Automatic annotation (TrEMBL):
The lineage of its organism: Eukaryota, Metazoa, Chordata, Craniata, Vertebrata. PROSITE patterns: MYOSIN_MOTOR, SH3_LIKE. PANTHER family: MYOSIN (PTHR13140), MYOSIN-11 (PTHR13140:SF857). One of its GO terms (cellular component) is myosin complex. Pfam families: Myosin_head, Myosin_N. It comes from Dissostichus mawsoni. One of its GO terms (biological process) is actin filament organization. InterPro entries: Kinesin_motor_dom_sf (IPR036961), Myosin_head_motor_dom-like (IPR001609), Myosin_S1_N (IPR008989), P-loop_NTPase (IPR027417), SH3_Myosin (IPR004009). It comes from the Eukaryota. Belongs to the TRAFAC class myosin-kinesin ATPase superfamily. Myosin family. This is Uncharacterized protein. Keywords: Actin-binding, ATP-binding, Calmodulin-binding, Coiled coil, Motor protein, Myosin, Nucleotide-binding. Residues 435-462 form a coiled coil.
């Protein structure tokens, strides 16, 4: 695609492909393939330079910064001609090596071209800033185009999977067989902070845009307030608020894995979606490192954007009033908790939760915050814990619809099964604290996901034999620095 054809991408064109003028200039740049080499260097890993001497298993290279380096001849790598600078598919390089790949990604990144192909794979470098490459103009620019017809982008990968699915479906229709289920999987992988979560959302956004179930969003005579495509997109803000947190390396790290299935009908239109979650980092509910933060939802609720919510949950605007969520940082520079709470609250409405269900969800979250403030003491001359005041327990019981006396009894005198009978067991203060922490962790995200799955147009999942599936799989890479 030349500059004229790239106009279909609007302002995003500059972030997707280098201009024709730059490509022509690269082809006319002087280049000596016999002396142009990368050389290993301890600080920078690799530097560009000119080979000046090579003998006796040693090579001497004069780098572009004027430094002369002598290394083993196995530690120099031939450079590609300038016409390959910022190449879109690194598999097309004449010399494919570690330094050539790194420099190509670096040079594309310096021009904010964050997507690059490497054969069948699409490599993404996280820009840590917002780029205008995901709006509706860009979606339409990639729609229906083959991979070689457009610059690298996650939208191109998504559209190709969608088009292959339609081809499979078309072949079935021609043969009068529509019973097979064709599945295509997108699997982002990478270390924490690489951009897996954002690209997951972009794939979902693309499918929700190009495979709308109808030309006009119809009002449904049910409790659903948003169309199916709106619900699929809205599921992400809600899941992120309850399952994402700040870590040392990533301000919005997914602390759980999610498996999202998007189902399409026989015409290629959206039919339904479902979500599976696993490996939730439950320990973060009760403990955070000093440079990290607990799950976003806690801090969103305390922004005070909805003062009536503070009153309903019996909480304050100060996170330090709640020990379990204030062991690390309480604010994140890159995250506006008020804006994120507005998105979370709107997502709950779009997904069709009733006012009572929304209130119940928030109350359960508030109860988790109060759990960390419960106090217990040891009875004199007994190895038995007892409540040190009931004010916090009363708040938790109110929010969860329980009796505070029953709650405290369950913590201090739990019933355990011995043989075929239940007996009451005494607890020490540390044992009560362990039970209390377990209660906070156990159902934090599971309940929200179960309710969410029931909202994402479950009725349209019927007739599974005639539904095609494009699967979206996100792998969570645990940070090595954690604990």
């Amino acid at each position: 695609m030349g500059d004229a054809e790239m106009e279909c991408f609007g302002p995003a064109a500059a972030y997707l492909r280098k201009p024709a003028r730059e490509r022509i200039q690269a082809q006319t740049t002087a280049f000596d393939a016999k002396t142009a080499f990368f050389v290993t260097e301890p600080t920078e890993m690799f530097l560009k330079g000119k080979l000046t001497k090579k003998e006796g298993g040693k090579a001497t290279v004069e780098t572009l910064c004027g430094k002369t380096i002598t290394v083993k001849d196995t530690e120099i790598f031939p450079m590609n001609p300038p016409k390959y600078d910022k190449i879109e598919d690194m598999a097309m390089m004449t010399h494919l090596s570690e330094p050539s790949v790194l420099y190509n990604l670096k040079e594309r990144y310096s021009a904010w071209m964050i997507y690059t192909y490497s054969g069948l794979f699409c490599v993404t470098v996280n820009p840590y800033k917002w780029l205008p490459v995901y709006d509706s103009v860009v979606v339409n620019g990639y729609r229906g185009k083959k991979r070689v017809e457009a610059p690298p982008h996650i939208f191109s990968i998504s559209d190709n999977a969608y088009q292959f699915m339609l081809q499979d479906l078309s072949a079935e229709v021609e043969s009068d067989i529509v019973n097979n289920i064709y599945e295509h999987t997108h699997q982002p992988s990478g270390e924490s902070g690489a951009g897996k979560t954002v690209n997951t959302k972009r794939v979902i956004q693309y499918f929700a845009t190009i495979a709308v179930a109808g030309g006009k969003k119809m009002e449904q005579a049910s409790k659903m307030k948003g169309s199916l495509e709106d619900q699929i997109i809205a599921a992400n803000p809600l899941l992120e608020s309850y399952g994402n947190a700040k870590t040392i390396r990533n301000d919005n790290s997914s602390r759980f894995g999610k498996f999202i299935r998007i189902h399409f009908g026989t015409t290629g239109k959206l039919a339904s979606a479902d979500i599976e979650t696993y490996l939730l980092e439950k320990s973060r509910v009760t403990f955070q490192l000093c440079a990290e933060r607990s799950y976003h939802i806690f801090y969103q609720l305390m922004t005070g954007h909805k003062p009536e919510l503070l009153e309903a949950l019996l909480i304050t605007k100060n996170p330090y009033d709640y020990h379990m969520i204030s062991q690390g940082e309480i604010t994140v520079k890159s995250i506006n908790d008020i804006e994120e709470f507005i998105a979370t609250d709107a997502a709950i409405d779009i997904l069709g939760f009733t006012l009572d269900e929304k209130a119940s969800m928030y109350k359960q979250t508030g109860a988790v915050m109060h759990h960390g403030n419960m106090k217990f003491k040891q009875k004199q001359r007994e190895e038995q814990a007892e409540p040190d005041g009931t004010e916090v327990a009363d708040k938790i019981a109110y929010l969860m619809g329980l009796n505070s006396a029953d709650l405290l009894k369950a913590l201090c005198y739990p019933r355990v099964k011995v043989g075929n009978e239940f007996v009451t067991k005494g607890q020490t203060v540390p044992q009560v604290w362990n039970i209390n922490k377990t209660m906070q962790k156990a159902e934090k995200l599971k309940q929200q996901v179960r309710e969410l799955e029931g909202e994402v147009d479950a009725e349209q999942r019927r007739g599974a034999e005639a539904i095609k599936g494009v699967r979206k799989y996100e792998r969570k890479v645990k940070e090595l620095s954690y604990q």
